[in-house]
TrEMBL record:
Signal peptide: none annotated. Coiled coil: none annotated. The keyword Cytoplasm does not apply. It comes from the Bacteria. Keywords: ATP-binding, Nucleotide-binding. This is ABC transporter ATP-binding protein.
């Protein structure tokens, strides 16, 4: 099978600013990737390229078998789900709806339902609620949900269109520990649906067992990439975060700490 994502010597510039340079990265079938890096490292630009919202300044990009420059990018975007705390800016729409209507809107990639909804679409929304262990939310107004429940409903919304890839951009930002763990618990179901995950975070403890590989970005360049256990090393993370850190593993999850003797300047 072809690569899910293939970037070859990709660069991205805005005016005089070189935001990404020399990016070589492949996602192969059955791989699920985490992306780590400081603010300004190029994570958002990389996501925008992969999801077809930015065209690279140079280099070759192929996503889900679609070679940029020879494909319809709006059609490609329909195959990619997206969940982010940034979706909170659409709260005015979500808060007026019940949970299942929020989910069904994902089929149309719209914030509101303006087309005929087939009975099988409502059935699919029910199935997603059940598979993500959210059936108890059926019929509830979205605005009454906890923040963690809202993020999990947004995953169901993203899966409504049967995406081949799901991008999770800091999805646990602002969640408490319980809500975060409940959110991370649904990733197993996402992987089981044969959907490839790209998970962006600042917190390595969110890279649960479903995330198999990691890419480290620093100042627009790749520090390291590969299997999670090979990349989440203290020396590589210290270089990425520009501060000395230690890493420990508990129950197959990594946890990071800044070295005590470190003085931050």
């Amino acid at each position: 099978m072809n690569d899910i994502v293939s970037l070859k010597n990709v660069a991205f510039r805005r005016g005089e600013n070189e935001i990404l340079q020399g990016i070589d990265w492949r996602i192969q079938p059955d791989e699920h990737w985490g992306i780590l890096g400081l603010n300004g490292s190029g994570k958002t630009s990389l996501l925008n390229i992969v999801s077809g919202y930015h065209f690279p300044s140079s280099g070759e990009v192929e996503v889900l078998g679609n070679l940029f420059g020879k494909t319809n990018l709006p059609e490609l975007r329909k195959k990619i789900g997206f969940v982010s705390s940034s979706l909170d800016r659409f709260a005015d729409f979500f808060n007026k709806e019940k949970v299942e209507r929020v989910i069904v809107s994902g089929k149309f990639a719209s914030f509101g339902i303006y087309e005929q909804v087939a009975p099988e679409d409502w059935e699919k929304a029910d199935h997603l609620l059940e598979s993500l262990r959210l059936s108890y939310l059926k019929g509830k107004p979205y605005h009454l949900l906890s923040e963690g429940e809202k993020r999990r409903v947004l995953i169901a919304r993203a899966l409504m269109s049967d995406p081949k890839m799901l991008i999770l951009d800091e999805p646990c930002s602002g969640l408490d520990i319980l809500s975060r763990e409940q959110f991370l618990g649904v990733l197993e179901e996402v992987v089981g649906s044969k959907c490839h995950i790209i998970y962006v975070t600042h917190h390595i403890e969110e890279l649960v067992k479903e995330i198999t590989h990691v890419l480290l970005l620093k100042d627009g360049e790749i520090v390291a990439k590969g299997p999670k256990e090979d990349v989440l090393k203290p020396e590589l993370l210290s270089e990425t975060y520009k501060v000395p850190v230690t890493v420990r593993w508990e129950q197959n999850r990594p946890w990071l700490a800044v070295k005590e003797e470190t003085t931050i300047r």
